[in-house]
Amino acid sequence: MVLRRALYEGWQMECCGRPFSVGDEVTWPVMPMEPDDMRAWGWDEEEYEGLLRVEYHSDGWPTAEGRVRAIHLVQQEYAETGPGSRTFAPVPGRRTLEPVDSCPKWFARGEPADGPDPRRRRDTDGVLVTLDVPDPPETVHGTGHRRLPSITDSTPTTPNPPAAPRRRPGDRRRARRGR
């Protein structure tokens, strides 16, 4: 087994996710966290190397399957970008990780605190999950490519998938009418 971390953003959970707890078996579509996103989120690229992101809103990503070993709420402090702007940006170094037993369905957004400018608020942006994933094979047979050690993809790789059947002009109309 290999431990991997995945960021499950609050909006992804609120839209399409199902809450889970430590010890649960899960399967999620994941994508690697890009270096620009790592910096924007304030994740140390060395400490969080290989960080995955749960992604339900685009196709083609492999799935991560495993047992949830730890869940941390990701809480970030934000500061108003200008007096009265109502736009807030993350404050570097003001993120905390709070261990919890279960992932909530809904995430709290803090109210801006009155006081000297800039106003600040604290939001819960999602959860950082540690997954215990099965050890995948060193290579995927037939492709010659190394496989990422934390992602298991149950879809077979076909070098030249068969072409989709050609549609006839009336097919679309019949499909819409339910025929």
Question: What do these coordinates show?
Answer:
The structure is a single chain. By secondary structure, this protein is mainly beta. 12% of the residues lie in helices and 36% in strands. It contains three helices and six strands; from the N terminus they run βαβαββββα. It has helices spanning 10-16, 35-41, 171-177, and strands at 2-9, 25-32, 52-54, 63-80, 88-100, 120-133. It has a five-stranded mixed barrel with strand order 1-3-2-4-6. The N and C termini lie far apart (49 Å). Mean pLDDT is 77; it is low at 137-179.
List the helices and strands and how they pair.
Elements: E1 2-9, H1 10-16, E2 25-32, H2 35-41, E3 52-54, E4 63-80, E5 88-100, E6 120-133, H3 171-177
Parallel strand pairs: 1-3
Antiparallel strand pairs: 1-6, 2-3, 2-4, 4-5, 4-6
